[in-house]
Amino acid sequence: MKPFETSLLGRMELNNRIGIPAMCTYMAKGDGIANLHHIAHYETLAKGRPAFIVQEATAIAAEGYISDACLGIFTPRQREPLKDIVEVVHDYGVKLGIQLNHAGMKSKCAAHKVSAMDNADVHALTAEEIHRIVVNFEFAGKWAKELGYDFVEIHAAHGYLINQFLSPLTNQRTDLYGEDRTLLLKEIITGVRSTFEKDVIVRISAEEYEEDGLHIADMKDIVEAIESCGAAAISVSSGGLNKHPIQTYPMYQIPYARAIKQMTSLPVMGVGLITKEEEIETILAQEDCDYVLLGRKLLRDPYFLLSWQDAFGLLTEENIGECLYRGIHKHGE
User: Fold this and answer.
1) How sure is the predictor about 30, in pLDDT bands with cuts at 50, 70 and 90?
2) What is the DSSP string of 35-61?
3) Distance, CA of 120 to CA of 177 (rounded, Å)
4) 284 and 332 co-located in one domain
5) Locate the NADH:flavin oxidoreductase/NADH oxidase N-terminal domain: which residues (predicted)?
6) Model confidence over 254-305: pLDDT tens digits?
């Protein structure tokens, strides 16, 4: 079955083609420090044996948090419990990445909000301040390597800082960062790759759902920028700067992944209300994308993949241990 094929993503050997995207838990109790909730949460997801998990958006600087309940990586106290998350996920043979992020003007807790342009209480970053943020990403990549993460995902989607520089909705600068709206993204990818020294994935919003925003036809330049900087894969999502509700339905973002896949030779990840076995099989059989990301589905049913494997006789006690096997294996029922 294609969903359970082994594959090579960058330099990572993966056991199947199902991953878990970054999903904020908003459970940090201050100072961006992980706690027992985070360790238990990621261990539960890892027990279900996806190929990989992307740890929730993790701030690279104090002004970069989405909220004051989000994780950070820029202080020693923050990094210490992240080691435990890495170790517990690796105990189950699952790859773990960390999504590095700066929320920009979408921060709910920054004392001074920043973005590409001035706007009400938002400060337009100067070239020097932009350079400082790039350096913060570089240091975050260095720390991610030291902590043992298998890959880094750069968050360039959902209306956060990098997306704010990519989008014409929020970037009408007249300097280099306006002439080439991909410049910040390229500098960050290049910087993180230089310090992390392993695979870097980029998450993008391929559709902004606003007339003057980014649409799939505008993605070619962004995809080419990602490729040119040596990224290992592209994770395709949508939205973030939209002012109106998005109409969602099963697999609603897969057409964007399919379109991006036609623009690149890089592996592509697709996501978006995918909940059924037949949906996953169809997406992979049609080569709409190379990896399927299951978010809320695996929050509700973290052992979904194991039950699916068991139904086809692919699950063994040797692979998951006696206790979990007893609970999942149907014994011919």
Assistant:
1) confident
2) -HHHHHHHHHHHHT--SEEEEEEEESS
3) 21
4) no
5) 9-305
6) 999 999 999 999 999 999 999 999 999 999 999 999 999 999 999 999 999 9
